[in-house]
Specification:
Blueprint lengths: L2 H26 L2 E6 L2 E7 L6 E8 L13 H17 L10 H14 L3 H27 L4 H15 L5 H33 L12
Helix pairs in contact: 2-3, 3-4, 4-5, 5-6
Length: 212
């Protein structure tokens, strides 16, 4: 085999290797969507020309429209993030409180895939709402004990709720609770001061009348 032939073979092999590496790298960035048995399956390309591995299954989700052969990360991640937000919204209410821990789990998963500001805001708004509801509930429990230390604790909960971006209606509700608790604290403090003053006053015994 002549040197010229060896050179040609070397060039061909190098080109084939380059094509394989390029194809493998491109495939690694691809995502593939399948819809089977009422669930959306997302597969991620491996570092090989055709390989892929399972990424996530989303029961009850709808496939993107239109369906394409491959998808990018920017197309797939918002789809997953929105799926978890929908799951959080679908958690049923119970007589006392909804299952906040389950909702939080879904919303935190959503934030993992929320690469766009609008979906991030959607998830965070819902998380803030849960935290506000929990704080308001704790504030009511503390306020019902009707003692100054517990009323101070209730105020702390309400002030924390105020920092979690409540809407105008919630803001008004929180402020009403704060005003009510401050009024009750002032009443209890006045009662305590009056009681302390009565205790500190000396007992005045009536003078005996002179015997005639």
């Amino acid at each position: 085999m002549g040197n010229k032939t060896k050179t040609i073979i070397f060039i061909v092999v190098a080109v084939l290797i380059s094509i394989a590496l390029f194809t493998s790298h491109s495939n690694k960035d691809n995502y593939f969507v399948k819809y089977e048995d009422g669930a959306v399956e997302i597969w991620k390309g491996r570092f090989s020309p055709l390989g892929r591995e399972h990424f996530i299954t989303m029961p009850g989700a709808q496939p993107p429209n239109p369906v394409k052969e491959t998808y990018s990360r920017e197309e797939v991640f918002p789809l997953i993030a929105k799926y978890y937000i929908d799951k959080a919204d679908a958690v049923p209410d119970v007589p006392d409180l909804p299952d906040f821990e389950v909702i939080r789990t879904y919303l935190n998963k959503s934030l993992t895939y929320a690469i766009t500001p609008d979906i991030q805001e959607e998830a965070r708004k819902r998380l803030n709402k849960i935290d506000r509801m929990v704080l308001l509930y704790k504030a009511d429990i503390a306020a019902n004990k009707d003692a100054i230390p517990e009323l101070k604790t209730a105020l702390e909960y309400l002030n924390r709720a105020n920092t979690l971006a409540p809407d105008e209606m919630e803001l008004g509700l929180i402020q009403l609770k704060i005003d009510s608790i401050r009024t009750r604290m002032a009443e209890l403090e006045t009662e305590q001061q009056a009681g302390a003053q009565n205790q500190n006053q000396p007992d005045v015994k009536p003078q005996a009348k002179p015997v005639k």
